[in-house]
C-alpha cells in the first residue's frame, strides 16, 4: 500500500504492458506443447474465446471459431437478435464517419428491441453446425430471456457486463439474484466482468462455472475516462487466481475457470494472461482484423452504444488475414495480431512448459 | 519520503491520471444513487460547480448552470464586470490567432478597470432568475469590492487565486486578512486554491465554508512550467480531506467542504475527485464544449491574462452538445466529456455506493 | 520482489534506457584508454561484434569489420548460404513496400534451403582475407551443418536463437545436446540468447566460451508483443555477470565472456552495456546505417522471416557514413549512431577508467 | 539503492521534470522578494547567468545581460575568439539545413584556431561597458591562454567542460592541475560541470569560487545517447548542495556557490533549481529566444562541434521578445520562457519566501 495523501492509501496495480514473461533455464519443442483447455463437458484445442461483440461475432463466425478449436460467443442482445436481417445495420455501422456520428448512429440502431425468437433462431443455427454453443446477455436482460436461453440448451451461458456482482442491491426493483439464477439453471454459467479477489470469490460461491476477469480494459473501451474505474489486467488476473485457489479449497474441489477479458490484443498478451493465472482469454480486436469479421475492420463493443453514457469508441483495424490465420496462423505480420495460438505455443516452448496449467506458475518481471 | 539527493528529501504525490477507482463486491441500481450536495443553506442536485472563467460563465450560463442543478460562479473581475457590453471583447478573443497574439490581446482587454456597479448589476441578473448566486474575486481585489459584494447578498462568495493563504505577510501594504474578512462578512466564503494539509487547515480556521483544492492543475494552466509549483490533484485532495477531518474534531463539528478545482476534465475525474475525498468539483473545460459557452469552444482562465507573467493558454475544444447534455446527459461521445453527473452516478452504482459522502471512502489503486 | 496480485509476485527489471552511467571524481585522457578485448586466442581492438544479420553482414562487410578491429559474424543460414548469388534477393528485399508484403516476401525468399557447400565457401572467403572468422547458426540447424563448420575451422562459432537453453527437452526428436556438442567441437562456441542467471550458468557449465545476453531486445524485434517474453537488457547483463563470477569460482578460473546482444543502438548503449558487466557488445542497427551495408539502410533479422510466427519488422535507417566511421569515427551526427568505439572511449575517459574490465564496476543510476 | 541485477545496484536520480515545488501555508507580496545574488565581490540583481554559447552570447549580449542585472559569460573558444569578424560564420550557421550538414559545417568552422589577442580584445569590449566580465574556456585550452586571461582581469573565469575533475590523471601529457592553477590565479574561478557530491567536494577543495552543476543536461545536448553518462539535475544539485555544506564546515566558512548548468529552460526550472539548493542558474535556450540573440533563434553549444564525437544538436526556437523581456519581463507567452526573474519572484512570493538562500529549503514533491 502506498500513501496517496494523508487520508488515503492505495494499492499498486499493473497492466499486461507493465509485465513480461521471464525466460527459464529450460526449453521444449513446440510439438510437445498441449494448448487444450477443458471446461465443464467441453475440451477446446486452444484457450481462446471470441468476445460477444457484433463487430466480430455473427452466427457464421461463431461457428467458424468453434471449427478452429476455440469458443465463439454470440452477443444475444446485439444486431442478430434485434433484427431479422441485420445486413443494412452493418452497412450503416461500417461507413466512414466521425466518432460523434458513429456514437449517435449506434445509439439509434441498438434502440430496437431484442426479440426472444431471434435469440432462439441464432443459437439453433450455431448448434446445427455441430460446434459448442455460447451466448451472452447483460445482467439487466438476463431474467427476461432466461427461459429462451434455457430452452436453447447452450453449452455455456455468459452473464457479461461492465461489472457483475453477486450482491446487487436494489430496494425497489426485482433484480437478478445470481446465486438463485445459476442454481436453477441447467446450463453452465460464466459471469463477469469482475476484477477483484472478493468479487470473484462471491461469483464463485454463487455457482459460476467460470468468471470473466476484466473491467473495461479493451482497446476500444473508454470506461476509465468515463467512470474513473479501472483495474489493470495483470493484477486483476493475479488477484482473481487467488480467489480460485481459495474457493477450490473451501468448496472441496470446485475449479472455477478464469477467462481474461480485456487488453488481450496480441499473442504476447495471451501468454501474459495465462502466465498471470488465467485459464483462457477472451479476445476481440485481433478477430476484428480477420477478413470474415462482420464489422469489416470496424470494431465496437456493447459499451459503445449505451443510450446516455457511451463508453467505447468505434475503431478501425486493417484486415490481415482469415480468421483461421488470426487464430492458428500462419502469421504474416510481426506484431502479434496473427497466430494467437502459435504465439502462446512458442512462448510456452521457449520457457519449457507443455501445458496451460503449469504455465500459470511461470515467473514474471515488472518492466 | 524519497531521497532526491544527499541534501534533500521529497514526498511522492499523484495526479488523478495516476489513480483509478477499484471495483467492490457490491453493485447498486443507478436510480438509488443520490448525488445531492448540501453546503450551507443550499442543496444542489449534483456536486458540480462551474469555474469562474469568462470562456464558460456569463450571467446567462451561470443561471443555466443553476437550473441544471449545479452552481454557476461568475468571475467578478472578468469581461462582464469590466465592460458594459462585452460582446465585442468576446468577438476578439474567439478569433483564430497564435498563442502570443492571443496572450497580448488578453493582456490588453483585461487591462480595462473593474466596475463595482457592473458587479452589482450582473449578480442581480443571476439572482432575479431564482438560482443560487455565486461570484469570485482574487485576493488582491477582494477588499476593494467587499462592500459591493456584501450588498449583493450572494449565496456564496469565492476568494480564488493561484494560491491563497491565511497568513499572507506584507510589511508595507494593507493586505487581506482572511480571518477578519470572513468573520465580518455575512455571506459564506469559499477560499482557494490550496493544496496542502496545513494551508487548508489554516483556511478552515479562518472560517471558510469551503476550500478550493488545487493549484494550477487545469488543462489550460501552465503554472507548473512558469512557477515550478504543482501539487498533483489526487494527493492534494486526499491531504486536504485529512485537514477537514481534523478541523471537524478541533472545531467541535464544523464541516468545511472540499471543492476539487483543477484537472477535472472528464466524468471519470469527477468520480476520482470525490473518491479522493472531495465534496464537489469545480469544472471548466468540459463546459467550454457546450454550445451555450460564451467562449464558443475557446477556453481561457484568469492566469492567461496576467500582465507580466501569463500562466495559461487559450485552448480550443470542439463543441459537443448543450450545457444540459454536458452536465446531465445524454452523452453522444465516448470520452467522458458529456453527462458528467451521469458518469459519477454510474461509477457509484457500479461500485455499490448511493451517496457522495460514503463514496469518499472507496478504495483507489495506483496504476 | 513486488506483489503483482494476491497470487503472484514479480521482480523489477530495467532496460539500458532506464539507467545512466554516473560520473566519478576522476577523469583520464582518452589516449590512455585501452578498448582491447581478448577472448580465447584472439584480441580485438574494440569489444564490438557485428550481428549475424543479412542486412549488415555479407562476406565483404564481415571482412571489413575485422579490418576495423572488431568481429564480423556471418549468418550461416541467411541469404549467402541459401543462394549462390544473393544479389537478386537483396534487390527484392530493399524495395519500398508495406510491412505485410515485406514479411511475406521474406518468408518466401528464406524458404530456400541452406547449402553446406555455400557455408564452406563463404567462410573461406572471410578466412582468405586474414581476419578472424565467425559464423552463426540457430540451434535447430546446428547438428546438420556441424561437420561443415568443424572443417571450416572458424575462430568462433555461434549458436544463436531467440533463446538457447542447456536443457532443451524433447521426448521425440533428437535435439542438440549443447554440452556434448561443445565438448566434441574444436572451435570455441559462443551461445545465446540467454537472459537470466540460471540459464547463463547452465550454458557456462556446458562449456561455452561466451554467452550472448539478450532476448529479442533489438530495435527491429517484436518478440515482446508476439511472445510476451522480455528481459530488459541492463538487468539481464547484470544478472548474467553474476553467473560469470560464480562460474569463474566454481570452475577454478574459466572466464566466460558476456556479449550484450540487443538494444545496443547508440554509443551510449555500448558504454552502458559494459558498465552493466558485459565484456563486449553485438550491434546490428548502427551498422545498417553504414554505406557498405548490404541492406542499403533496410534492416531485418532472422526473427523477421519465421514461416508461421514472424517476430521482427523490416525497418529503414538513413545511411550516415562508412562502416569505418560508424565503428571508429569521426562522427558527423550528434545522436550516438556513429563512432561507437569513440563514444565508449570518451565515456571511459570522462569517468576515469582506462580498461574495459574495470569499467564494468562503475556506478550506475536509475533515471 | 535499487537492485539492477544480481551483480549491480543503482541509485535513483531525478530530473527537474520529476519534481515540483510544494506550496506552503504562507504567501508574501512580490515586492518584498529579494532576488539578489552576491558572489565574491559582485552582487547581481538576479541569480541568472547566461551560458557561454555562441548562439546566445556575443560581446554585445554579454554586456546587455550585465545591464539587465545578471551575468553574461563569453565563450572564449568560440566564434568571437577564432574570427576577427564572425558575421560570415554566423550567417553560415543560421541557415536552414539538415542536422548532418549543420554538424559538418560546425566542425569546419570551429576548426579555425583560437587567437589570444581576440580573447583580450573581446573581454576589453565588455569591461569598457562597465558590467561584470566573465569568460569560459574548456580545461584543454585553459593552460594555453591562462596568461591572456590573467591580464584581462575578469571578474570571473570559468573552466567549463562536459565534466571537470580535480583529479585528472594522465601519464604522458602535462595536464591542468586545477588546484595549482586556481591557487596561482588572481581571478575567482568557477569550475564545472560536475554532478556528484565527491567531484564537487574535490573542486571546492581545489579552491573554486563556484561550481557548475550539470552534465550534458541541456535541451540541445545528446550526451546521454552518445556517452551513456547522465545525472538528472534535481538530484545532482541536491547532492552537490550537501558538498557545499560539508565543505563550508571543513573549510571553516568558505561558501562555494552552486550554479545549476543544464535543463533550465523555463522560469519554473529556475525556481526548481534554487529549491534543490542552487545559488544561481546558467541558462541557454531561453536566451536563444531573444531578438538580440546572435544565433537568430538557432541554438548550439560547444558539444555540437566536437571534431570526432559531436554531442549536441543545432535546434531552433521562435523568437519571443527582447533579452530584457526574456530575463525581466513582461512576458507575453504562457510557457515560462519569458520573464525568468519574474517567474522565480512569483514562485517565492506564493510560497512565502523573500530571499534566495532560504528558498533553498522549501519542500519538494516527486510527481
Automatic annotation (TrEMBL), chains A, B, C, D:
InterPro entries: Aldolase_TIM, IMP_DH, IMP_DH-rel2, IMP_DH_GMPRt. Residues 13-296 form the IMP dehydrogenase/GMP reductase domain. It comes from Tessaracoccus antarcticus. Belongs to the IMPDH/GMPR family. SMART domains: IMPDH. The keyword Oxidoreductase applies. This is GuaB3 family IMP dehydrogenase-related protein. PANTHER family: INOSINE-5'-MONOPHOSPHATE DEHYDROGENASE, INOSINE-5-MONOPHOSPHATE DEHYDROGENASE RELATED. Keywords: NAD, Oxidoreductase.
Amino acid at each position: 500500500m502506498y500513501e496517496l495523501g494523508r487520508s488515503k492509501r492505495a494499492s499498486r496495480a499493473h497492466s499486461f504492458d507493465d509485465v513480461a514473461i521471464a525466460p527459464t533455464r529450460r526449453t521444449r519443442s513446440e510439438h510437445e506443447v498441449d494448448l487444450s483447455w477443458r471446461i465443464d463437458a467441453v475440451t477446446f484445442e486452444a484457450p481462446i474465446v471470441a468476445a460477444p461483440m457484433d463487430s466480430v461475432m455473427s452466427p457464421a463466425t461463431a461457428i467458424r471459431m468453434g471449427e478452429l478449436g476455440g469458443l465463439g460467443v454470440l452477443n444475444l442482445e446485439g444486431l442478430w437478435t434485434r433484427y431479422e436481417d441485420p445486413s443494412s445495420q452493418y452497412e450503416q455501422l461500417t461507413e466512414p464517419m466521425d466518432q460523434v456520428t458513429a456514437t449517435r448512429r449506434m445509439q439509434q440502431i441498438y434502440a430496437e428491441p431484442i426479440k426472444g425468437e431471434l435469440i432462439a433462431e441464432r443459437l439453433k443455427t450455431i448448434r446445427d453446425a455441430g460446434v459448442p454453443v455460447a451466448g451472452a446477455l447483460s445482467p439487466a436482460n438476463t431474467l427476461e430471456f432466461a427461459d429462451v436461453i434455457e430452452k436453447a440448451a447452450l453449452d455455456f451461458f455468459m452473464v457479461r457486463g461492465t461489472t457483475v456482482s453477486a450482491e446487487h442491491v436494489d430496494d425497489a426493483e426485482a433484480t437478478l439474484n445470481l446465486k438463485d439464477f445459476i442454481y436453477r439453471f441447467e446450463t453452465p454459467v460464466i459471469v463477469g466482468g469482475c476484477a477483484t479477489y472478493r468479487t470473484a470469490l462471491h461469483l464463485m460461491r454463487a455457482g459460476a462455472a467460470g468468471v470473466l476477469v476484466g473491467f473495461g480494459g479493451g482497446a476500444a473501451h473508454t470506461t476509465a475516462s468515463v467512470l474513473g474505474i479501472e483495474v489493470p489486467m495483470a493484477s486483476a488476473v493475479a488477484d482473481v487466481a487467488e480467489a480460485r485457489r481459495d474457493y477450490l479449497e473451501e468448496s472441496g474441489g470446485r475449479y472455477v475457470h478464469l477467462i481474461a477479458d480485456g487488453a488481450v490484443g496480441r499473442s504476447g498478451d495471451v501468454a501474459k494472461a495465462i502466465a498471470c493465472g488465467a485459464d483462457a482469454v477472451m479476445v476481440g480486436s485481433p478477430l476484428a482484423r480477420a477478413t470474415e469479421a462482420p464489422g469489416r475492420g470496424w470494431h465496437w463493443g456493447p459499451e459503445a452504444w449505451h443510450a446516455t453514457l457511451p463508453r467505447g469508441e468505434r475503431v478501425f483495424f486493417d484486415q490481415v488475414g482469415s480468421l483461421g490465420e488470426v487464430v492458428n496462423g500462419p502469421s504474416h505480420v510481426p506484431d502479434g495480431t496473427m497466430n494467437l495460438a502459435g504465439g502462446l505455443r512458442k512462448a510456452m516452448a521457449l520457457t519449457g512448459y507443455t501445458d496451460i496449467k503449469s504455465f500459470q506458475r511461470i515467473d514474471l518481471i515488472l518492466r
